[in-house]
Write a structure and sequence with these properties.
Blueprint: E1 8-13, H1 17-30, E2 35-41, H2 57-65, H3 69-75, E3 79-81, E4 83-87, E5 99-103, H4 109-124, H5 138-144, E6 161-163, H6 166-180, E7 183-186, E8 189-195, E9 198-204, E10 209-211, E11 214-217, H7 224-229, E12 234-236, E13 245-248, E14 261-266, E15 269-275, E16 280-286, H8 293-304, E17 313-316, E18 320-322, E19 326-327, E20 330-332, E21 338-339, H9 347-364, H10 372-395, H11 419-428, H12 434-444, H13 449-455, H14 464-473, H15 486-498
Parallel strand pairs: 1-2, 1-11, 2-7, 4-14, 11-20
Antiparallel strand pairs: 3-6, 4-5, 8-9, 9-10, 12-18, 13-16, 13-17, 14-15, 15-16, 18-21, 19-20
Helix pairs in contact: 1-6, 1-9, 9-10
Bound molecules: flavin-adenine dinucleotide.
Flavin-adenine dinucleotide binds at residues 13-19, 40-42, 45, 47-48, 50-54, 166, 188-189, 218-220, 222, 224, 246, 283, 315, 317, 334-336, 342, 345, 347-348.
């Protein structure tokens, strides 16, 4: 398919976060080459309206567009995020280590991170050590000290993400994009016309026909173009990840919210806590094989210690990915292309990655399908890489094994009888990819995990320190002799000292 590059139309169908992020990036990069970007969004089909946490990649997105942080953050009730605190995913037999922080990187990690790795290796070799990740990372310390990532120190560099209101994010990006010249069409698409794998037009409920050279399917879980029309294969991750439902209930913000997401293990899944400036976003992600929606709502209300006055939203999640994200003249982005459950808040990161990779492949191929196969392979590898890291959280859990007080009291198994089975099945029955099996075996045998991640190109998805934080945070050691030492204490006090350079 070779095309002239004058005045081609790219139509993005869907106006959720994925649709507006896609349209803005396409407009920013391709408008100069003669492409006109249009967005069709339905006034009657609501956006999913969850998805309030990001990775540091979202900063890159706004930087590319040249949108100042103070502008969009204020409009979207956004707060800073230094990482994720995981609560209670191990047992509670060692209460001081029943949580750990998955930090975003900083340039201080070279020194303190190296010492952390030494401590881990010492522990893996059977000697007492201090391999808990929290004391070794600047961003973990910033979160603990309730500091923003903003500072004026010339030599400090930290990565950070955000929490935001997802509805307001979409509205902000819509206003920004239409202001820049993206054409907005507010209507619901009823049918999609195509010849083989090429979509020629979409038709709305009133019979208006919209022709376009290229289409982006951002219609959410239904995948109106790529799945419903083109019948692209969907590969479910249900053997790897059991959770397929969520229930969400907002609560009021308190004065002492820390700048991180909290992910707490609950009866048959986990709960997120995301502090915005206007409220706290809470939700419980669980498996419908083990819990009913009513039970799940009860567990969440008990966890939040709230009565049933605030209404709950129940959501289904289709977890998995398309076999191909770019088919003919159509590219799927967002929930239409796949979804890995939100434990590490990676969905918008994958949106951005998909669009950026597409633009690279599209431009390199002179606006043709030349690099379509490479693009699809790259995006599939990203999905698998993120999935493996998420699966490790479940595979390594030590919950509900009956070793004393190993489920947090409000989440006890008498509330959900299947809790014990859920966590045991996550440990024993989730399917582990070959890559993940290799990582876990390497860790257990004290091998060179960094080299293995490099050799298998897994570092591109999660860096070595993230894997070490996860596995050490989950206390994946054959013995549990934690021993404080002077150097760890020195590192921690140096990091605390550095937090003085950051604003509150
Ligand atoms: C429980 C849960 C928690 C999540 N947490 C996170 C998180 O912390 N971080 C993160 O990055 N992501 C998270 N996500 C994912 C995130 O919500 C989505 O990736 C993001 O909102 C993008 O969604 P979307 O735009 O693909 O789909 P949607 O928001 O569903 O938007 C679909 C759009 O398509 C339009 N549409 C549909 N059909 C038609 C039609 N026929 N005609 C015209 N328009 C149509 C709709 O009107 C809508 O505008 C979470 C998801 C879930 C389920």
């Amino acid at each position: 398919m070779t095309k002239s590059i004058t005045k081609q139309i790219i139509t993005v169908v869907g106006g959720g976060s994925a649709g507006w992020m896609t349209a803005n990036l396409l407009h920013h990069q391709l408008h100069q080459h003669g492409f006109v970007i249009k967005v069709i969004e339905s006034p009657s089909i609501p956006i999913i309206g969850v998805g309030e946490g990001s990775t540091p990649q979202l900063k890159v997105f706004f930087d590319i567009l040249g949108i100042d942080e103070s502008k969009w953050m204020t409009a979207c009730d956004a707060t800073f995020k230094h990482g994720i605190r995981f609560n209670g995913w191990t047992d509670l037999v060692h209460p001081q280590y029943d949580h750990y922080f998955h930090p975003f990187p900083s340039n201080q990690d070279h020194n303190s991170g190296r010492y952390f790795l030494q401590q881990v290796h010492q522990m893996l070799a059977g000697q007492p050590a201090m391999p808990h990740p929290d004391p070794y990372f600047l961003t973990a310390t910033l979160a603990q000290e309730n500091k923003t990532p903003l500072h004026a120190h010339p030599e400090l560099k930290t990565s950070y993400g955000y929490h935001f209101d997802s509805v307001k994010l979409g509205q902000f990006l819509k206003a920004y994009g239409t202001g820049k010249g993206i054409e907005l069409i507010s209507t619901t698409i009823d049918s999609v016309e195509h010849q083989a794998q090429t979509i020629t037009s979409v038709t709305d409920e009133q019979g208006n026909v919209y022709h376009s050279d290229w289409f982006f399917d951002c219609t959410g879980f239904t995948g109106k173009l790529i799945q419903e029309t083109l019948g692209t294969e969907f590969i479910p991750y249900s053997d790897n990840l059991f959770n397929d439902r969520a229930v969400a209930i907002p609560t009021q913000r308190t004065d002492d919210e820390l700048p991180h997401t909290t992910a707490t293990a609950l009866a048959c899944g986990w709960a997120w806590r995301i502090p915005l400036t206007s409220r706290i976003g809470n939700g419980y992600v669980y498996s419908s094989q083990y819990s009913s929606p009513e039970e799940a709502e009860r567990v969440l209300r008990q966890h939040l210690n709230i009565d049933d006055k605030t209404p709950a939203r129940h959501l289904s999640m289709k977890v998995g990915r398309l076999a191909q994200h770019w088919v003919g003249n159509t590219v799927a982005v967002g929930l239409s292309q796949g979804f890995i459950e939100p434990l590490e808040a990676t969905a918008l990161h994958l949106v951005q990655e998909t669009v950026t990779q597409f633009i690279g492949a599209f431009c390199a191929g002179k606006f043709t399908n030349t690099y379509q196969a490479q693009f699809n392979a790259t995006i599939n590898a990203r999905f698998e890489g993120v999935r493996d890291y998420i699966v490790a959280h479940y595979a390594c859990n030590q919950l509900a094994q009956g070793k004393g007080m190993d489920i947090q009291p409000p989440l006890s198994s008498n509330l959900i009888p299947s809790s014990k089975k859920y966590w045991a099945d996550c440990r024993n029955k989730v399917h582990l990819s070959e890559n993940l099996q290799a990582v876990l075996a390497c860790w257990k045998n004290g091998g060179d995990l960094h080299q293995l991640l490099v050799d298998r190109k897994m570092q591109t998805f999660y860096p070595t320190l993230s894997w070490y934080s996860l596995l050490a945070g989950y206390r994946q050691f054959s013995h549990q002799q934690y021993q404080d030492n002077i150097q760890t204490k020195q590192i921690q006090s140096k990091l605390v000292e550095l937090t003085q350079h950051f604003t509150r």
